[in-house]
Amino acid sequence: xxxxxxxxxxxxxxxxxxxxxxxxxxxxxxxxxxxxxxxxxxxxxxxxxxxxxxxxxxxxxxxxxxxxxxxxxxxxxxxxxxxxxxxxxxxxxxxxxxxxxxxxxxxxxxxxxxxxxxxxxxxxxxxxxxxxxxxxxxxxxxxxxxxxxxxxxxxxxxxxxxxxxxxxxxxxxxxxxxxxxxxxxxxxxxxxxxxxxxxxxxxxxxxxxxxxxxxxxxxxxxxxxxxxxxxxxxxxxxxxxxxxxxxxxxxxxxxxxxxxxxxxxxxxxxxxxxxxxxxxxxxxxxxxxxxxxxxxxxxxxxxxxxxxxxxxxx
Length: 314
Ligand SMILES: Nc1ncnc2c1ncn2[C@@H]1O[C@H](COP(=O)(O)OP(=O)(O)OP(=O)(O)O)[C@@H](O)[C@H]1O
Hints:
Elements: E1 2-12, E2 18-27, E3 31-35, H1 42-49, E4 57-62, E5 65-66, H2 70-76, E6 77-80, H3 92-102, H4 107-117, H5 132-143, E7 150-154, H6 162-174, E8 181-185, H7 189-195, E9 198-203, E10 206-211, H8 213-220, E11 224-230, H9 233-246, E12 251-257, E13 260-265, H10 270-282, E14 287-292, H11 297-304, H12 307-313
Parallel strand pairs: 3-8, 3-9, 6-7, 7-8
Antiparallel strand pairs: 1-2, 1-4, 4-5, 9-10, 11-13, 11-14, 12-13
The chain binds adenosine-5'-triphosphate.
The site of adenosine-5'-triphosphate has 11 residues, from helix 1.
């Protein structure tokens, strides 16, 4: 069963920007990361899924229920708010209890959630004294007090240092054990790769591609192969000449640039790496590095955002 489904969703935001034909789904228990450049439409889409913004046409279903049915849907979703407008004069404990009462949360559940979040030691501290990372944790915790099935997070770690980001990732990932699904927008590709089961790339209001990391990489990876870096540029050239002579059937092409020999293969198989390594060893080549030519999700994102757009951003 999908916890989220959007079908042929359209939303005109301004004369210049619309969300167009958004078809997304999240299977129950999965995390989906939404990535795309500034202004691609991530926040607009998340606001629609949260029921905070109306759409023009299409469908948005949360656990099979149209998002407009707010009394039902509000119980199913948790929205991670940004840390604005907190009552500084309350302690974490006072605020959590107050929010808990508003949301009818069981006190035992609350205490359990506080423990998971790692905020126990700050329980008696004033909100004004919490660090950015702990405030983020507090907001995530508040979003799951009513035991939602889907949590919606817009850039949950923006502006945090790398150590704190990792700590928040651990916390977000632990929500999976509670059976919670999530949609997370982020500019950090590492965050998307680490946290999510699937990734959707949005560009100019449309979902350009979605799937698991491997599915996306496969779609956009036009070049399989290996890159061999040799210590000596001359050796790189002679290595290139030698492998050309061998006429190996899996090698589509090979070229040299300074100390690097790039070998493009027909698909990829581990045996290719073994064979090339053996050949390098037999020829006593001095190898600095052998690298598989593998696209990263960041490479895919850059490919999708047209080179024109990149140039105009500079
Ligand atoms: N209220 C509004 N009125 C007019 N245009 C808007 C409004 N809200 C958003 N937009 C425009 O819609 C487009 C998408 O904005 P959105 O905030 O959804 O993008 P985003 O992917 O979340 O960007 P970022 O990564 O910078 O947060 C942008 O061009 C933005 O300027």
